[in-house]
Design brief:
Elements: H1 2-27, E1 32-33, E2 36-37, H2 58-66, H3 69-73, H4 89-95
Antiparallel strand pairs: 1-2
């Protein structure tokens, strides 16, 4: 009988860990970096991905216009982790009518 109680407690503990992790992941799906929600980065992904990206969509330009571009300079090295090619940022901003800071 002791083994069954231990097994039930272990299963309950595992369930609690899984549920806690699921809640944490759900809450952490978007963070704000330089006035941009990481979820909104997806709106610009096509325009900064690959060697010949398409022009940015209006939603992407709206995101870019709210961004703190000076702040983004410090994250430039991490943009590849989000599937974005840093060398495509300056052309994207120009197509959106935004003057990029010299660091981008």
């Amino acid at each position: 009988m002791g083994k069954n109680n231990n097994r039930i407690h272990m299963q309950f503990a595992i369930l609690a860990i899984v549920l806690t992790t699921a809640i944490m992941v759900k809450e952490a799906t978007s963070i704000s970096i330089c006035n941009i929600s990481t979820n909104n980065l997806n709106k610009c992904r096509p325009a900064v991905t690959g060697n010949n990206p398409p022009p940015p969509e209006p939603d992407c330009c709206a995101v870019a216009k709210t961004a703190n571009l000076r702040c983004l300079c410090s994250y430039k090295a991490f943009l590849r982790r989000y599937g974005m090619e840093p060398s495509n940022i300056r052309p994207l901003l120009a197509k959106c009518g935004i003057s990029p800071p010299s660091c981008l």
